[in-house]
Amino acid sequence: MRDVAVIGVGETEFGELWDRSFRDLGIEAGLKAIQDAKITTSDIDAVYVGNMSAGKFIDQEHVSALVADYAGLADLHLPTVRVEGGGACGGIALLQGRMAIASGMYDLVVVGGAEKMTDVGDVHAAEILSSTADQEWESVFGATFAGLYAMMARRHMHDYGTTRAQMAAVAVKNHKNGALNPVAQFRREVTLETVLQSPIVADPLGLFDCAPLSDGAAAVVLCAAEKARKFTDTPILVRGSGQASDFLALHDRRDLTTMDATVEAGRRAMKEAKCDPKDVQVAEVHDNFTITEILAIEDLRFFDKGKGGLATQEGLTSLNSKISVNTSGGLKARGQPVGATGVAQAVEIVKQLRGEAGKRQVVGATRGLTHTLGGTGATAVVHIFERGD
Amino acid sequence: MTSGIVSYGAYVPRYRITPKEIGAVWGTDGEAMGRALNIRSKSVPAPDEDVITISVEAARACMAKVDIDPTQIGAIYVGSESHPYAVKPSATVVAEAIAAAPILTAADYEFACKAGTAAIQTTMGLTLSKIMRYGMAIGSDTSQGAPGDALEYSASAGGAAFLIGTDRVIATIDHTVSYTTDTPDFWRREGQRYPSHGGRFTGEPAYFKHILNCAQLLFKRAGTKPEDYHYAVFHQPNGKFPTRAGKQLGFKDAQLDTGLLVREIGNTYSGAILVGLAAILDEARPGDRIFAVGYGSGAGSDGFDITVTDEITRIRREATPTVKEQVKQAVFLDYATYAKYRGKILLGEAAA
Q1: Residue B332: exposed, middle, or buried by beta-carbon count in 10 A (0-12, 13-18, 19+)?
Q2: What gap in Å lies between CA B218 and CA A244, rounded to an integer?
Q3: Do B204 and A122 touch (CB under 8 A)?
Q4: Residues of A in contact with B204 (CB under 8 A)
Q5: What is the mean pLDDT of residues A283-292?
Q6: What does the mean pLDDT of chain A come to?
Q7: What is the domain count for chain B?
Q8: B259 vs B279: CA distance, rounded Å
Q9: Cβ contacts (< 8 Å) between B199 and chain A: which residues?
Q10: Does any domain span residue B352?
Q11: Taking the CA atoms of chain B, what radius of gyration do you get in angstroms?
């Protein structure tokens, strides 16, 4: 298998971008990545697009061809692939792009992720998000996404003594990081009191425990490592990738407080990258709810099971601490355009490893990790990146 | 020659309900909702009140302040999104009630919450062009919010009438501008009982975009700046939006306070900015300048640069209760009574 490097990244602003369409966002992120990589469109062999539900959000399917068309690539007749996997689709698209190059089939691919979520009302958007849970056994009985994650939170509190304040610390930290990210949806800090006093969405999760609905897109340009130097002096290598699945419905899982898919995906990625959790300095993990980040940092073995909340409260996941988690602001503060999430995480890690993260730069970062989830954890994807120099 | 306001009258129903009382029924923290919206209570129409009765009350209050023969009114337009009839005008009832009929034109207007200001612009044109001596523009609503919906905390009732002309003007309208786009932030189709809305979309791309653009156009057209005005009033769907828009434009609390009634009476929709303007005229003195920008979903803003004249001391402002007095005269309802008054309880068929 050939080594694969990221040679270009691009992303849009994230937020309620009322005056911009799905295609506007996809084009902007894609062109920024292409410009960053200093390639021309004729260098591109294929396009992969992570998108959760354009069919429901904007009544548009077949977005792979659409994105290539509106990026001005139509007359190159490239193979274009849309990847769906709930919230993990961006991470999966990245994995597919990497595999295509690693196999030798392609030399250079563009991987994008995009979602336009604000063309539908809030209630409708929540229903669409919940469609990545089990429709027949969960959603139909009224379980919302927030409700399912609230059950995980409640069980974590019961089993390990995790507190609302510890979960709230995730939101406080991610808003603090988001305030340093010029493309974040929420570029402002929040206090612990604000999070704790926010209206309850699904007990024990309040409004500020939940990531927002967002519009946005992100893209990376992947290239065979052996050819990457032609385009950049700072290629960032994708050293390991792991994807895993689990029972779709939460009630079928072995343990409500452990996402086995995350555990397995993380183990596979680290095995391939020949590293341990302690070797990672910066991680972008899935934090659609505050409890999700706590589960992730435990399941990725950055902290022992049950200790994630305390670790966050003690500042061990803050910027430039033991491990810097969600330096972009995460889904919570940077925003959650579902299909873009996994790719945007890669954009952040690449910026960190290149030393281009500005005020939120993790000092001396050489290895970074991304982690995305589909549904309530039925799909997990982990990638590990390293500087290639 | 300029046209302007010759007289005005406002009417606010006396019944009120608090966000806390509404929230208690729906299992939400109504007090927190009230704080978030900056609304302490909203007005509720009595069971026998509707847009027609509210418009008539406002029109009668308007005529009570002046000695003007109602037959000199050449047009009456009633702007509302809750006209009692889909087909059959409200304006004709007002015309009969104030004895302005039959030699006049009348029509009902609809442009969400700015139908009343659109009526003012129409009557300005008709009087400036000398087609008629006076025209009456009314904005009034008994607005609808679906039970349990966020709108239920604000949707209220009230209205105001403005007699527009070019002589005996108590406040000249020196400039008017509008800013209009097709922006579907709030709508109700024929036959639907309650409106639909785009949630947060009703904010930035709708209310703020139109109000702020219209206001900037008005400053430019009038050659004025915020400190030139004694008062500023904006459409007020809640207490937060107009305050934020006002501050963004450079107005201070002291300029905004008098016209900001939403905190006590809720969002009277087509009546909102006009009742606010009436509250300002209740206390305004000759020479005072007023900056007014309305907003209607769909969407558009009408802006008015107004200067109060000496004539305001010659009308009988005390002939009718001031807006402030009407706001204070509150009778608080529980949710059950509110539900009954608003026709939200299904009643049985009357025995034959």
Answers
A1: middle
A2: 60
A3: no
A4: 16, 18
A5: 98
A6: 96
A7: 2
A8: 6
A9: 121-122
A10: no
A11: 19
Report, as residue numbers or ranges, the catalytic residues of B: 81, 113, 235
CB contact under 8 A, A121 and B198: yes
Q: Do A199 and B28 touch (CB under 8 A)?
A: yes
CATH 3.40.47.10 is held by the domain A141-212+239-387: yes
Same domain flag for B196 and B209: yes
Q: Check pLDDT > 60 for residue B352.
A: no
Q: Is beta strand A46-50 parallel, antiparallel or unpaired with respect to A108-116?
A: parallel
Residue of A16, A21, A124, A201 to mutate when probing chain B, most B C-beta within 10 A: A16
Give the closest of A18, A122, A199 to B204, CB-based.
A18
pLDDT at A224: 98
How far apart, in Å, are the Cα atoms of A46 and each of A12, A51, A103, B34?
21, 16, 14, 53
- Mean pLDDT (chain B, rounded): 96
Burial (CB < 10 A; 0-12, 13-18, 19+), residue B313, is exposed
Is the pLDDT at B350 greater than 80? The verdict is: no
Q: What one-character-per-residue DSSP string does A295-331 give?
A: HHHHHTTSS-TT-HHHHHHTTTTSTTSSSEE-TT-HH
- How large is the average pLDDT for residues A206-219? 97
In whole angstroms, what is the distance from residue B243 CA to residue B259 CA?
A: 11
Same-domain status, B61 and B139: yes
Task: Supply the range of the domain harboring residue B288.
Answer: 171-311
A337 CB-near residues (< 8 Å, 6+ apart): A14, A25, A113, A114, A115, A116, A117, A214, A215, A216, A217, A344
Residues on chain B touching A199 (C-beta within 8 angstroms): 28-29, 32
- Per CB-CB distance under 8 Å, the chain B contacts of A16 are 200-201, 204
Residue of chain A nearest B31, judged by CA positions: A199
What is the number of other CB atoms lying within 10 angstroms of the CB of residue A140? 10
Cβ atoms within 10 Å of B83's Cβ, excluding its own:
25
Q: Flag whether pLDDT at A327 surpasses 60.
A: yes
Q: ipTM of the predicted structure?
A: 0.76
Residue A389: is its pLDDT beyond 80? Answer: no
3-state DSSP assignment of residue A224: strand
Shared-domain flag, residues B135 and B24: yes
- Per-residue pLDDT tens digits for B8-21: 999 999 999 999 99
Amino acid type, B21? E
Q: What is the pLDDT of residues B157-174, one digit of tens each?
A: 999 999 999 999 999 999
Angstrom distance (rounded) from CA A312 to CA A173: 8
The yes or no reply on domain A4-121+214-236 and CATH 3.40.309.10 is no
Q: Where are the domains of chain A?
A: 4-121+214-236, 141-212+239-387
Q: Is the pLDDT assigned to residue B351 strictly greater than 80?
A: no
Please report the pLDDT score of residue B200 as a whole number. Answer: 87
The 10s digit of each residue's pLDDT in A117-149 is 999 988 899 899 999 999 999 998 989 999 999
In angstroms, rounded to a whole number, what is the distance separating the alpha carbons of residues B124 and B129? Answer: 8
- The contact set of A with B (CB < 8 A) is 16, 18-19, 118, 121-122, 199
**Cα distance between residue B304 and residue B349, in whole Å:** 49
Distance (Å) from the alpha carbon of B59 to chain A's nearest alpha carbon: 39
The pLDDT value recorded for residue A121 is: 85
pLDDT at residue B55 is higher than 60:
yes
Q: Read off the pTM.
A: 0.87
Q: What is the pLDDT of residue A388?
A: 79
List CB contacts (< 8 A) between B198 and chain A.
Answer: 121
Is it the case that residue B276 has pLDDT exceeding 80?
A: yes
Q: CB distance A18–B28 less than 8 Å?
A: no
A315-323 mean pLDDT: 98
